[in-house]
Amino acid sequence: MGIFRSLQQRGIEKRQKLVDELQGLGFGIIDDSRLCKKGEIILNRGLNSPDSNFCVFIKTSFFGRTKVFFTDPSKGEGGKALSKRELMRRFSSFRVSDAWAEKVKDEVLDVQKAKDPNTRFVVPHGHWGENEGKDDGASSRINIIREMLLWHYDIDATGYHNHVIPKHIREIAELERRCGILKVPSIELTLPHRNPDSSNGPHMNIYFSSLETASSFYGMMVDRLVREFPGMAPVMERKKLLGRISDMRARNELALGIAHPYGETQLGAGVLSMGIINELDAGESLQWLFDFIRKYADMVAIYNPTFSNSPVSFSGRLISEDFFRGIVTKYVGTTAKMTQNNITYAFSLHCRHTFGKRNYFDHDTHVYSGVPFYWRMASPLSYGRLVIHFDEKNKERAREVFAKKDFTSSEFVQVLRKGSFSRNGCEIPAKVSYDAFVELDGGKLLPMKARRSLLRKMVLLTGKARQGLQYVKMFWQEAKRRLKLWK
Asked: What is the C-alpha separation between 137 and 467, in angstroms, rounded?
């Protein structure tokens, strides 16, 4: 055992050369044993500086082998063109020489240029385990945050289904603060159908200006009205709820995103609809849909990787096939099929060009891997992102804010609402955009091939099984509801 300890110690000493090099360039060490595995160091260029996050994972094994792992954050066509090896950079050596450390450092410096220091990446939709039954996520907080770090996220705007639990949000916020991520209080709210007794309806991502605002909204409008399964719509009157949302938006106390505009999943012999477009099947009109987007939405989701890409049938339904087929052809392509994500993508762009609404990538991730063994497994967090950018003209004022590490949830909501935020009497503009690393493959929009991972699917089988049990519960509750209505 002595020889192995000696090898490990030599590996740690050599690893320190690279760590020292990166620290000398402004990278900070994330000092939290809960987030870092044994023998591991995570460095973040934005931890102690005004720069946005760019993280590097470094680990020395028991046998003295040193591994370095980080990802390429290139945007647009450059991001789409990356191979799997280019997307997920991995270096490994038993003998960490000065030359090896210098080579890795140069690679880190080159790749990190792909993310502008004044650009912030946002996770706008996702779900958490360790939730006391208040959400339908199936992963630990540590695994979720590690994946956010690997893909260089700066702002976490995810939230539970139909619940705001202040204690949980504070715990997550403190853990994320230690590694340079801002936690924005939010909720994925299931808006009831017109019938208040319905247990279903379209999903909305709501982002709050503060935890107090989120708690107040939840206490007044949702608490004690939620059903046992988190994803089901609270028992409330839709008109009253929308009135409250409208008032709070006007005061910049919240911003609203339309999650997965076309969303439905098979539930036993029936179909459970969860998108605003699916309200057309419940009797709403296209005009109602457009009026809703104009009046209440700040953003409309452009892609959701959790939904099936199977063809959508319009037979015997009230959804306007001609309209949606027209926008899919216009915005996705003449060879595009009528699938859920193709319809969502086209509708989101239609809302942008027609109503001036922003687009956002709708991760909706329920199961995370947590960066095991530095395997090249592209996460859904790599499929796309919401992006906030401060241009050259305004970057100095923005950097003053980020240097103080006090950019707030309120300022985030302002950016989503009006494209700027107020600080000390000054208005600081920001550009809100998105990346969607998807391609048309066989008529369906799918993540780029380099970002699809069969290995990830295998690793997450246990988590998927836990999620499956939650959906069994969901099916049982829906069956009981329908039986009650039938009686």
From this structure: 7
Whether the pTM exceeds 0.90: the reply is yes
Predicted confidence pLDDT, tens digits, the chain (487 residues): 566 666 666 667 777 888 999 999 999 999 999 999 988 999 999 999 999 999 999 998 877 788 999 999 999 999 999 999 999 999 988 766 778 888 999 999 999 999 999 999 999 999 998 888 888 898 999 999 999 999 999 999 999 999 999 999 999 999 999 999 999 999 999 998 876 566 778 999 999 999 999 999 999 888 777 776 777 778 788 888 999 999 999 999 999 999 999 998 766 556 778 899 999 988 899 999 999 999 999 999 999 999 888 889 888 787 889 999 999 999 999 999 999 999 999 999 999 999 999 999 999 999 999 998 999 999 999 999 999 998 777 778 888 888 888 899 999 999 999 999 999 888 999 999 999 999 999 999 999 999 999 999 898 888 888 777 776 776 676 567 557 756 6
d(CA 258, CA 136): 19
CATH of the domain at 425: 3.20.20.140
If asked whether residues 187 and 302 sit together in one domain, one would say yes
DSSP 311: B
Domain extent, residue 11, equals 2-112
Distances (CA, A) of 81 to 304, 434, 448: 21, 17, 9
Which residue shows structure tokens 């946005």? 52
Question: Are residues 39 and 12 part of one domain?
Answer: yes
Q: Provide the token pair at 322.
A: 């001609």
280 lies in the same domain as 388: yes
Q: If residue 459 lies in a helix (H) or strand (E), which one and from where to where?
A: helix 454-459
Alpha helices for 139-285 (secondary structure H): 141-150, 166-177, 211-217, 238-250
If asked whether residues 209 and 82 sit together in one domain, one would say no
Percent of the chain that is helix, strand, coil (3-state, to 5)? 40, 20, 40
Residues ≥6 apart with Cβ < 8 Å to 307: 260, 263, 264, 265, 340, 341, 344
Statement to judge: residues 156 and 24 lie in one domain: no
**10 Å Cβ neighbour count for 8?**
17
Beta strands 119-123; 384-389: pairing state: antiparallel
